[in-house]
Prior knowledge:
By secondary structure, the chain is an alpha/beta fold. About 35% of the residues lie in helices and about 20% in strands.
Amino acid sequence: MSAILIDERIVHYEVLGRGRPIIFLHGWVGSWRYWVPAMQTAAMSFRAYALDLWGFGDTTKDPSCYSLEKQTALLERFMQEMGIGKVALVGHGLGALISILFARRTPEMVDRLMAVSVPFEISAVNGRLRSPASPADLADWLLSRDPLTEPARTDAPKADPAAIVASFNDLDGASLMPLMDSLNTPCLIVHGQNDPAIQTPTYERVMAMPDRIHQIILEESGHFPMIDESAKFNRLLTDFLALISGDSPRQLQLKDEWKRRVR
Length: 263
């Protein structure tokens, strides 16, 4: 287990591989741990980091740190402490929100961004996720029971429910769509067709965004595409990371296994 101190609070992280940096940020259910297969894929060419956000996993639980602003500041401080100048970000759910906010605020520090299962409006979020009875209940709802889901299921109870609620309180009444329309960072948006927690934005709305933004829907995935269709997700991740810096993800040659139905 690796950890650093930020403002005298413990921030847990893990790292694999060597090369250019990539950071994986978890969502509202689980911790860094469910990223391991994707980290192993990325680590063949990148130095892959994954950290637990405030209130999750083995990072300090402190309600004063749970706002989206404080979680975004955690990412910036982590990069400073680790000597990371420019990075590729892969965020899921809450981690995707933080990645978008960070890329919008400091575009010079983000080379590219993959946003997985991200809500662009608070109305796109199922109420069960917004007001969790417990993180363990969310895990039971969103994850099947098999060996692949155990990392997320095992770490879900470590989360402080207040950290989940706080992030949605900040999102309430806000819209990420204007931020996406002005985002200068190449961004690949990935959603699961069968996600019960997050409503997928329409293809037409995403295509109206700048051409540096692209959407792919994995038709056999729920809220966790990196678990539900791990091999497919990791192939997509590899192709995205292989793009020349600055290129639009719309240049990806979509293979048959991840072509989505146009709505």
